[in-house]
Design goal:
heterodimer, A: 196 residues, alpha+beta, Ubiquitin-like (UB roll), DNA polymerase, domain 1, 5 helices, globular, B: 703 residues, Aldehyde Oxidoreductase, domain 4, seven-stranded mixed sheet, five-stranded mixed sheet, 25% helix, binds FE2/S2 (inorganic) cluster
């Protein structure tokens, strides 16, 4: 092994991969070039556009700003891991139904981001537009303004934002209903309250 | 099969909302874009660009870089393949004559390509490459009174000058005159997918997968450029991550072909985001002077529109910003002039609604000022000046339903209740205002070819070298094919984006769906005639080809345009100068709408780009170094989700059979007029006119 490379292990979409990467390789390039998971997109390579958004240990992260060598041992969920077999994730289905995209290049990042948003919101995380941020206030309604704010790290040059907001609201409502049906409070305090 | 009639609107799926055919592939990440197709032995090219604005390359230190790990080659003007000069998609294109000589025409001009085994190696080597220059003085300072301003040569679709009637006399005789200057800055298309191509030689054929707006023309062009036989080049572009005018032929493809040819292995070249800002075109800044003369009742007597824009030292590109003025309003006298100045800057190109977008900002802002000065409602003023024929050409319109757009939009927006006085509405700390503007875009049709095949299994395959750059073209063409073949949707396959399918119009000029749809309709009709005579379908199917060249050429000349009315409500914080757009409404007359779901996305997407143009986008050029200061997505802000309010787009009936499909195209009209509607709303909120884009904080606060 060359000294400027590292042997790492990544758990991606439920599968563990052992790979040797150049130390300069980003997590994004490891996914795209080494694992042939090209669903995660590269729009800027500088953390400016959100096209490379994945879930890293369950949280939103821009894969272009992570070195693969530093992600050794971590768990990554990419767009390819979001559907349940043939059944799309509610966010994927809502993007399809509401036309929450045009060229589709920002879309995997938007969808991963939206899935992260729904979780963060359910966990009670406030955003910059949340009026009452006291913990006891619980999560704010996931209304259009909250969605716009929380999704603003994902640029869409085609300008699909209006449908994206609708799709995320619709999917969030479904995820919340699913949680309730499962009898749980979801992963966070108070579950997800949604107003679209 | 049955033989239904082909009358437009007869059958089911055109006009109905359909989700995208490739939707599942896009939401699951399965859709592969040009830079995402793997090949064995793939090598990676990385472009090195000039750091000076003008001069000659003195030396390129290739030796040090060739010794770096994994480096396979360094291509530069001393060793790169020679290209045929004087060719291009739209006339000779100097921007693609890369690595042909030592001249540097602007900062960011490509000076070398480093090819290596991995992208990391290629990038490190390209960044380590030392290039020295003999610098020459440069000039990148754009202004309307630059001594180098000249009149460009006439070229389609609009001659630089139009003059009808005596503008000066009519201005002198006018009761009310508006005489103002408006400017727009450098703007960048910035599609989310960076330009990418992979090229390889396969069985004596050059095969390229490229991110572009039209594979057929690009394959032809690459063949010419590399002295190849046209049939020996194939270009495909199945999925394209946005284009907005920036994805004609770009240097990344030329580089991929050069390197694949020299190394005889597949080579991929992907531009960085920063490189896209210097190598892929931009919308030139404009400086526009508008003079309107009117009678006291608002009837226009004179319209004078002069627009100055820039182009590079190596290539003349003309932004035809007076185009809206040539079609929108009746006037006794009309003068439109287009001027140009050549600077040491990257070459501008088409950006969504070239000419129309910046031109409409100036004209529709001036119309709002005329409404203020005549005391007329801005919509009343516009309707009072509706022309019977196109003001510049004198030709009739194929259809014109601008008035219906204003009427329907005014009703929905609540316009009739508007208080015309500026600067008087408060909502908490915000000043609130509303504005309106007209929208228009040419609706042309170009020749295309398509084939339709009846397969032995009873299904159909339609092939056309169309491109779906996010427009929904694939889905719309499927709908058109289904109706034209009178077949069930699941029995019809549409294949696009392959140069082997034959000549077809580019995805540009809002001409794609109208041009391709006509060719498909013709092919389907011919196939049905053939099938009526056939006893059985052979194993390889029955294929017919249609070519609309003759049909397109045989039409009578008319003025064919889409029209629209754009409404905006804004809130301005008088303390910070911040402008928030609160809502936008656009009502359009755009012929026949094939797919309301994707059409609405296109129109709203255009309006969002218009909002972004109004408030955010500005390329800032440093005159000392000649470079763009903010050439990335952090510095060049495009509208993000939180910038965008609820937006509605809809359309009125606009029957038009000048193209028998009735389609006018709607990819660009959404951006036309938005910036003026926003600027007019900011005036209504604050009382301050906005004659320079973008409407920055400092500009809203200036009195
Ligand atoms: S590619 Fe990672 S943020 Fe743009
Ligand atoms: S769908 Fe094209 S960038 Fe978002």
């Amino acid at each position: 092994m060359e000294t400027n490379s590292s042997a790492i292990s990544l758990r991606v979409n439920g599968e563990t991969h052992a790979l040797t990467v150049d130390n300069r390789t980003t997590l994004l390039d490891a996914l795209r070039e080494h694992l042939d998971l090209t669903g995660t997109k590269k729009g800027c390579d500088h953390g400016q556009c959100g096209a490379c958004t994945v879930l890293l240990d369950g949280r939103r992260a821009t894969a272009c700003l992570q070195l693969a060598a530093a992600a050794d041992g971590r768990t990554v969920t990419t767009i390819e891991g979001m559907a349940d077999g043939d059944r799309l994730h509610p966010v994927q289905q809502a993007f399809l139904d509401f036309d929450g995209y045009q060229c589709g290049y920002c879309t995997p990042g938007q969808i991963c981001s939206a899935i992260g948003v729904i979780e963060e919101h359910a966990a009670g995380w406030p955003s910059a537009v949340t009026a009452d941020v006291r913990p006891e206030a619980g999560p704010p309604p996931l209304d259009a303004d909250e969605i716009r704010e929380r999704m603003s790290g994902n640029l869409c040059r085609c300008g699909a934002y209006v449908s994206i907001v609708r799709a995320v609201a619709e999917a969030a409502a479904q995820v919340a209903a699913g949680r309730e049906a499962a009898g749980g409070q979801g992963s966070g305090a108070g579950g997800t309250r949604v107003t679209a | 099969m049955t033989a239904p009639s082909l009358a437009p609107g007869r059958t089911g799926v055109v006009g109905t909302a359909r989700t995208r055919l490739e939707g599942r592939a896009k939401v699951t990440g399965a859709a592969r874009y040009a830079g995402e197709v793997p090949f064995a032995e793939l090598a990676h090219g990385w472009v090195a660009t000039s750091s000076v604005a003008r001069g000659r390359i003195r030396s390129i230190d290739t030796e040090a870089v060739l010794a770096m790990p994994g480096v396979l080659a360094v291509l530069h003007h001393g060793n790169a393949p020679r290209l045929r000069p004087g060719v291009g998609l739209f006339g000779p294109d100097a921007t693609l004559q890369v690595l042909q000589d030592d001249r540097v025409p602007h900062v960011g001009w490509p000076v070398a390509l480093v090819v290596a085994e991995t992208p990391e190696q290629a990038r490190a080597a390209a960044e380590a490459l030392v290039v020295t220059y003999d610098e020459e003085p440069h000039d990148v300072a754009f202004s309307a009174d630059h001594p180098g301003v000249y009149t460009p040569e006439a070229r389609p679709p609009a001659p630089p000058d139009v003059e009808r009637g005596d503008v000066d006399a009519e201005l002198a005789g006018s009761a009310v005159v508006v005489d103002e200057e408006y400017t727009t800055p450098e703007e960048y298309q910035s599609p989310m997918e960076p330009h990418a191509a992979v090229a390889r030689w396969e069985n004596g054929r050059l095969e390229a997968i490229d991110s572009n707006q039209g594979s057929y023309a690009i394959a032809q062009y690459i063949a010419q450029l590399f002295f190849l036989d046209a049939a020996s080049v194939r270009v495909t572009s199945e999925h394209v991550g946005g284009a907005f005018g920036a994805k004609g032929v770009r240097p990344h493809l030329v580089f991929a072909v050069m390197a694949a040819t020299m190394l005889d292995r597949p080579v991929r070249v992907v531009l960085t985001r920063r490189q896209m800002f210097t190598m892929c075109g931009l919308r030139t800044p404009t400086a526009q002077r508008i003079r309107l003369g009117a009678d006291a009742d608002g009837r226009l007597r004179a319209v004078d529109h002069e627009s100055v824009s820039y182009s590079s030292a190596i290539q003349e590109f003309v932004e035809q910003s007076t185009r809206p003025t040539r079609v929108l309003y009746a006037t006794d006298a009309l003068r439109a002039r287009t001027r140009l100045v050549r600077l040491d800057v990257p070459t501008p190109t088409f950006m969504r609604a070239p000419g129309w977008a910046p031109g409409s900002y100036a004209l529709e802002s001036a119309m709002d000022e005329l409404a203020e000065r005549t005391g007329l409602d801005p919509i009343t003023l516009r309707l009072r000046n509706e022309p019977a024929v196109a003001p510049a050409s004198g030709l009739p319109f194929s259809s014109r339903n601008l008035a219906a757009c204003f009427e329907e939009g005014a009703r929905r927006f609540g316009w009739p209740d508007r208080d015309p006085r500026p600067g008087v509405r408060r909502d908490g700390r915000w000043l609130v205002g509303t504005g309106v503007a007209a929208s228009a875009h040419a609706a042309m049709t170009a020749p295309s070819t398509a084939t339709a095949t009846a397969e032995a299994d009873g299904t159909f395959t339609v092939r056309i070298a169309a491109a779906d750059i996010g427009t929904g073209a694939r889905t719309a063409l499927h709908q058109i094919a289904v109706d034209a073949l009178a077949a069930p949707p699941e029995a019809v396959r549409v294949r696009i984006a392959d140069s082997d399918f034959g000549p077809a119009q580019f995805a540009g000029g809002s001409m794609g769906t109208a041009s391709w749809g006509w060719a498909i309709t013709e092919a389907a009709a011919a196939l049905r005639e053939r099938l009526a005579l056939a006893d059985e379908i052979p194993a390889d199917g029955i294929t017919v080809r249609a070519d609309t060249s003759e049909l397109v050429r045989a039409r009578q000349p008319v003025e064919r345009h889409g029209f629209g009315a754009q409404f905006a409500e804004v809130a301005v914080d008088p303390a910070s100068g911040e402008v928030r757009v609160r809502r936008l409404l656009g009502v359009f007359a755009v012929g026949r709408v094939v797919n309301p779901l994707t059409a609405r996305s296109q129109l709203v997407g255009g309006m969002i780009m218009g909002l972004s143009m109004a408030l955010h986008e500005e390329g800032v050029r440093d005159t000392a170094s000649g470079s763009l200061v903010n050439g990335d997505l952090a510095g060049y802000h495009v509208a993000s989700n939180a910038d965008v309010p609820p937006i509605e787009a809809d359309w009125v009936d606009d029957p038009d059979t000048h193209n028998p499909t009735g389609i006018k195209g709607l990819g660009e009209i959404g951006i036309v007029g938005t910036a003026a509607a926003v600027a007019n709303a900011v005036w209504h909120a604050t009382g301050t006119r906005q004659r320079h884009l973008p409407i920055r904080l400092d500009r809203t606060l200036t009195r």
